[in-house]
Amino acid sequence: MFKKALLALPVAMAVGAAAQAGEWQDPNDVLQNLLQNNPDSAYLHQSEMNIMMMPDNPALWLVEEGEDLFYAQRGPNNVSLEGCDFGKGPGELDGAYVELPRYFEDTGKVMDFEMRLVHCMKELQGFTSDDAAVGQRHGNGSDIMKLTTYIAHQSSGMAWNPPLDHPEEQAMRDAGEKLFFRRGGAMDFNCASCHGDSGKQIRASVLPEMRNGQEWTKAISWPAHRAGHDNVRSQNHRIRGCVWQMRHAGIKHDTPVNTALISFWNDAARGEPAILPDLKR
Amino acid sequence: MLRNKTVGAGLAVLASTVLIAGCDGWMGETSGEVDITAMSADELADYLVLETDSYRFEQEAQEGGSARDRMVQDGIQAACSIEGDPDSGTAGEVIAMARESYEAPPGGPRLGNWRRGAELARSGYGYRIGHRNDDHGTREAGGNCYACHQMDPAEELYGTLGPSLAGYGATRGNDSSVVNYVHQVVSNPHQYFPCTKMPRFGRNNFLSEEQIAHVMAYLLDPDSPVNQ
């Protein structure tokens, strides 16, 4: 697995040389830098075991499987995903993940990564929602998580930089900020109830603070192998989990509340390098 | 109260379009019908929550009503949807709303059984919906106080979002003014702490009056481990 994962490096560097978002870096190097720069962050330092395991991150297996899937000719239309435009041109993956969500002319709306991936699998490859390829969203066995991990890995070490030039991008980001503070549900929680301060704990978990960019970049660095679940999880899965713990209504995938929240939370880590894939407790 | 409802009418039309078109439909082909850039951020946030089919609104909530009801804000939730502490005007309004809706139990607050209170303070079960819904028929919901508070000083697992309550009754006693105060806090803490992170356990019918009495005993009974 390391061979393949490491092989991705020179390719990414060669193509990504012109990217403004910075150069590709190994996720473990990104993490080590964050740890060194923030010796006092209880959130970043909370799990020594995970920090030690990071070079052998099990999520790297999915990078390899996802690469095969990305270039394979699949679906009723028997084409690869090389025609999929994640915002930087068809098949251009370097830096694409950290520059989402964004407005797409072809659909006339702001889309987050998973929405866009599903859009391409349906429109280009011809899958439908009934196919497991797009229907199954969670777990190491799912195509979506393999593809997500491979594609995200091509942006490792690059700075979060979701575009805000289009008025709808700005509108979704601003609405996402409101959503972050919108109270509701049986416990009156908003996201800031638990992510408003640094170093606070809920039970045994040290919580990341949204306004602390260096904590927040790790917080939003999904896909990540979640040790407690023994599975690689996505940004959308994390939102679903927190919404569930908040006792809000259950959130559906491919929906604009997800997109707005991600527009805001990626913006909140703007300029900080992404750890892709990460490893979490 | 802070919300502006002028967007409502036109948006209902779009919501039904979204349902028909499915996942790819929202604001795609239908974008001519609604201009999200014409809304304020607050309006758009409310619109996204309530009108875009983003949630499983049809599910039943354990406390009664639907999942949708959970996402429609009441006055305190709307006023407290802010970053940081409320300004003095907002704080005053929130305290007034909290006092207005507060009800003491018939005969006044009392202390129950601290052993039952200990279980309730530890349990984080209850009220989750969306997937793996919590089933109150098979397991009682708890108050999850330990998620945010230290209570029994011998307990090692506790959160720090709220202040330590270790020795709470030992330092305060449990005369009726203390009992009344603790009931007011557990039932609706915004009476004293406007826009606090602590849930309104009584007001939201999250805990029954009987359960609140047990939790109060856990805090105030001299025999409770909290006070050793």
In short:
The complex is a heterodimer of chains A (281) and B (228). Helix content of chain A is 43%, strand content 7%. By secondary structure, chain A is mainly alpha-helical.
Annotation keywords:
heterodimer, A: 281 residues, mainly alpha, Cytochrome Bc1 Complex, Chain D, domain 2, three-stranded mixed sheet, two-stranded antiparallel ribbon, 43% helix, 7% strand, disordered N terminus, B: 228 residues, 0% strand, transferase (chain A), EC 2.8.5.2 (chain A)
Q: What distance lies between the first and last C-alpha atoms of chain B, to the nearest angstrom? A: 45 Å
CATH homology-level superfamily of chain A: Cytochrome c-like domain
Mean pLDDT of chain B: 89
> What's the gyration radius of chain A in Å?
18 Å
Beta-strand content estimate of chain B: under 5%
Major sheet description of chain A: 3 strands, mixed
